[in-house]
Structures are given as C-alpha cells and as structure tokens.
Amino acid sequence: MEKILTVNHLTTQFSSKGISIKAVDDLSFHVAKGETLGIVGESGSGKSVTALSIMRLILQPPGKIAVGEIFYQQHDKNIDLLKLSKKEMRTYRGKEIAMIFQEPMTSLNPVLTCGFQVAEAIVLHKKVSNKEAKQQTLKLFEKVQLPNTDQIFDAYPHQLSGGQKQRVMIAMAISCDPKILIADEPTTALDVTIQQEILKLLKSLQQETGMSIIFITHDLGVIAEIADRVIVIYKGKKVEEAAVADIFKNPQHPYTKGLLACRPSFNTHLKQLPTVDDFMLTNADGSVQSKGETIEQVLQRFEKKNGSVKIFENKPLLKVENLSTHFSENKNLFSKHHETVKAVDDVSFEVYCGETLGLVGESGCGKTTIGRSMLRLIEPTSGSVQYEGRDILQLRGRELKDVRRHMQIIFQDPYASLDPRVPIGESVMEGLQIHGIGS
C-alpha cells in the first residue's frame, strides 16, 4: 500500500537540570493511505511524544526533536515536516494532519464555547465566512452524533459530558478533512458503551473520507477492534511490529507478551496480578531478554485456586443505606422553576474488610457522586453512611476530619486534581501535615 507518512530514526529528548532523557529513541515506522496503525505501550513509553513530534508540538525547551525525518506525501512530493518553518507547518497542522488529544477537558478552551472553537479552525484553514463556518460546524456536530447541535454550539466545555466533549474534539479534528488523523488515547476516560460509539464513529469517518489513522492507546482490546497493524513501544524504542492478528496470536517480544497477559480475564481468577516484569529481565545496558515462560505458564503460576474472596470480619466496615443525592437547577437564569436531578437515588450496599467492591455503570449514572457523597465532598440529600458504626453524615469538625483520614479517594482526572502551581512532593506531603502524620 502507498505510504502517506514515513518516520525515520526519530529521537525526541527532554532536558532538565543538566540531564537529558530520550522519550523517543531512534523510532522508525510508516503509515499507509487508508490504514489504521495502532501504537501501544505502557504510560511513559513515548506514544504521546511520538504524536506531538509528528505535529511539531514539542515545546523547546525543555523538549527537542534531536534527530530524524518525518516525510508526509502530498500528491507526488515527499515533504519533510521537520524542515518546514513554523509558519509553513501551520498550513499542514490541522488541515493535512489533525490530532484528537488525550484529555478533552484540558484540550478545549474553558472560556470559549465549543462551537466557536470548531468554527475557528474552519475559518483559519478554509477561508470561509463566520456564518458559513457555523453551518459547517453544526453539520459536523450532526456527523459525530451530538444531540441538540444548536445548544452544543453555544455550550462551554464544562457543560458537556465526557463523551460529548470527546465528540467535539473529533469534530474539530475532522473539520478540515485531514488526510491523517492522530487519535491519542481518545477513549481512555470514557465508559465502554461510549467507547464503542467513538470507535464505531472513527471507523465510519475513515470509510467515508479514506483518511489514515494513527491510534495511540495502552488498551489492547481497543487495538484489536480498530487497528490493521500495530507497533509496540517500550522506553521510547520500537520492540515489535506486526499485523494486529499476529500480535495477539503470536507475540514475539517478552514486553508484548507481558502487555497481553496483564489484560483482565473473565475465565481466570488470579491470586497475584502479572506485570511485564514477570516476562522479561532488563539488563544493565537497558536491553531486555525473555524469562522463558509463556503467557499460559505465568497465568497458571498466579492462578487463584480457592477462587473466593476472604472476608476478615462478619460485620461490614462500611454500610451505605438509602443514600440519595439530588441537585436542583434553574431552567434558565430568570426562571423560578427548579428542576431536580436525582444523581444518586436510594442506593444501599456494604463493604467488608479485605473486600474489593466494584461500582459499574455508564457515564452520568452516579458512580462518582456516590463516592463524593460518602466523604461529604458533596452533601447527600438523605440516607446514612456508616464507617465502623459511626454515621459520617452526622459528624462535624474534627470527627469528620478524622474519618476522612481513614477513607481516601483517588479522583478520576489526575491532571485536574493536582494543583499545577504546587510541586508533586508538596501535594503528597500536604495530606500528611493536615492529619499530623510525621514531622
């Protein structure tokens, strides 16, 4: 198949305090016209940096594309994107090569409406009037199956659900009919039902326009659904490349075997979760070698024989009874009519010591609100939350603070949860200082 993008010996590095780290190390691959290339690897392996390098979005300093060639085929010409000026690159970025960024909430401008942000790209690249750009934006919103397109056009990002924001990002990315679409973890923050819709949408758009897709993810299940060919990246280096079926049926590199083995299985209950380190040894020079075990042998070694969870107490550690959290909102700014939204409605469950309880449901069903209500980060409307016999909803001041020390929450979006003005160490220490743990 004819190549539309060729990456040769790409090396991208970052420098800090005199130390230089190669995030992408001598990486070479190509993308064919109409093909979906999957790029997989664990967090920090260099997937996103590869995408940002192609888009010429590496900030310098601290980042730098040290070595390499990135050829984009336009008509009969091979254009090295790394040799273009910044002004020349802007004519390719968005129009010829577009990107869906990893986190739509942080990628969309919070002070601009969603419609304006999409229309802006159309005006810039297609040189049409604002009125025409709005009409094209509304058609794009219909294409990506957004409801109430006029309302979405005038809505701000925080007023949309995660799935809707992701669709706005896709509309923006395809607004100028790009030949290559880079999708960087576009379904990571979405539940499985919306994830399926997004994957189906991308496939449909590809069939309609013939564009090539570079799909970046750590989720091998998603790769199996959408990719034609896969490259596996480990510590910035390509360790394996094959057709998607061959990657799953006959993985060659121990790192790839480790990635496949780490996927949860409904058929096997494990007493210990395998990691990639169970499949390979890392040598002093950074090279890796296999430990010699197959995926099946490792899983058999870790398999849980008793198959049941050991409950250490007969009484529950946490007891939630008839928990309800309702929100009241005005239909519009001047209306006296209030509409009640039942985010959590009469939910009850128990958690025992040593047990893991899963809360499952699609976006907007109330999972996160339950967690926040239990800790009273959101005040519940009614019900009780008893921790070791004490009703959290009746506690105040120091008593509530003490219970929160023993019940912790990991928030959904780390980027939005961590204070960007405070170093990581201070953020971690703050909780210890508040609760008087350590000096």
What does the model show?
- The protein has 439 residues and is α/β, with parallel strands linked by helices.
- The chain has helices spanning 47-54, 86-92, 104-107, 114-126, 130-143, 149-154, 162-174, 192-209, 220-226, 244-249, 254-261, 295-302, 367-374, 397-406, 414-417, 424-434, and strands at 3-16, 19-32, 36-40, 63-74, 77-80, 97-100, 180-184, 212-217, 229-234, 237-243, 280-282, 288-290, 318-330, 338-351, 382-387, 390-391.
- The strands form 4 sheets. It has a 6-stranded mixed beta sheet with strand order 6-7-8-3-9-10, with helices on both faces. The chain has a 4-stranded antiparallel beta sheet with strand order 2-1-4-5. The chain has a 4-stranded antiparallel beta sheet with strand order 14-13-15-16.
- Helix 4 (114-126) crosses helix 5 (130-143).
- The protein is globular, with a radius of gyration of 25 Å.
Radius of gyration, rounded?
25 Å
Low-confidence stretches: none
| Coarse structural class | alpha/beta
Q: What is the count of β-strands? A: 16
Oligomeric category: single chain
Largest sheet: 6 strands, mixed
- Write out the strand line-up for the largest beta sheet, numbering strands in chain order: 6-7-8-3-9-10
